[in-house]
Amino acid sequence: MTDFAIAAEPREENGRRASRRLRRTGMVPAVLYGDGKPALGLSIEARLLRKLLPDDRAYTNVITLEFPKGKETALIRDIQMHPYKEEVLHMDFLRVHAGERVHLHVPIHFLNETTCAGIKAGGVLHRALVEVEVEAPVGRLPEAIEIDIGKLLVGESLHLSQITVPEGVVLLPLQHEDDKEIVSIHNPRTGAEAEEAPETTA
What we know:
The protein has helices at residues 16-24, 46-52, 117-120, 172-175, 188-196, and strands at 4-7, 9-10, 27-34, 37-45, 63-67, 70-81, 88-95, 101-111, 124-127, 131-137, 145-148, 157-159, 170-171, 181-186. It is of the alpha+beta class. The chain has two domains: 4-97, CATH 2.40.240.10; 102-193, CATH 2.170.120.20. The chain starts with a strand and ends in a 6-residue tail after the last helix. GO terms for molecular function: 5S rRNA binding; structural constituent of ribosome. This is Large ribosomal subunit protein bL25. Belongs to the bacterial ribosomal protein bL25 family. CTC subfamily. It comes from Acidithiobacillus ferrooxidans.
């Protein structure tokens, strides 16, 4: 189900003071929850996270948490970062298992941006969405939703209902009849002309 694995250790102490002590030893506090089981406090070596987290695939793929006695499979659900340091303060993991359908935010990647017809004609690209929430089976979660904008013209836009997603993947906003705009090409002269238009008085 996954190519990502990381060593973890259960932890008994909770609270801010315990977390600060843990971080001073080079460990990061975390919690594992979900699947109808009690939440489990755990700790992971900060150096291992520095290797794992730069890989964007880690955020949409199943992670195997390897404990001294047993394993758990999970998704990264939340990461709390230091306000100004490249340092992980805390992580949340959600337990998952084969066959389960889960919700996850995945990034949107735009293809053929440099050859887009509307941009080549002088239009300005507006990205209304950079990610979208999807539902998909564990093991088939897309790493990204790819959208080809090569033929998009000035004045045109694309909405969620107009794109094709992998089999088994559901775009959750559409389940709520929220057909969000994803991307559009604007005419840059529209804004300039509006600013130059003379004011009218009653």
